[in-house]
């Protein structure tokens, strides 16, 4: 099996560096095998990297907008992610529980409880007893949180919808397929 030499040694699968060694062949971007990018726009840069860079730029701008919203409203970025997760669940018709929210955000139970307490104190969510099982607690987003989010993100959402209206249905389907694929790829590993 051929090995590829890396400057400063080889990176073994799993990230261990073997001084002066080589890397076992594998797909670019696999653990231990970084993607060789070349200069931006150069022939060595893999096809599609311009879209990867554009997606990263969009992600950074949206993250900055979220940070501005959080800062203006006395929220932590995790608070905003929690609200988005709860709103997404409600839109999908999925019940939200503290356990499910904690799992989604990668928080332990103490961190999840502190987050829920904070959002409840701010009047943005409420705990309600499940009508089918009174032992079970569900989380609901208060209309105040929805209005707050709409007041800040509404113009961005409107501009995005206006932009999408200029795309043919097939183009919208391609955008949806791409974004769904990126979402799924980001969830791996």
From TrEMBL:
Stored Pfam families: MarR_2
Compositional bias annotation for Low complexity: 7-22, 32-41
BP term (GO), one: response to stress
Superkingdom classification of source: Bacteria
InterPro entries, A to Z: HTH_MarR-typ, MarR/SlyA-like, WH-like_DNA-bd_sf, WH_DNA-bd_sf
Region described as Disordered: spans on this chain: 1-47
MF annotations from Gene Ontology: DNA-binding transcription factor activity
Domain named HTH marR-type: residues: 48-184
PANTHER family the UniProt entry points to: TRANSCRIPTIONAL REGULATOR, MARR FAMILY, TRANSCRIPTIONAL REGULATORY PROTEIN
Designated name of the protein: Transcriptional regulator
Organism (species): Streptomyces angustmyceticus
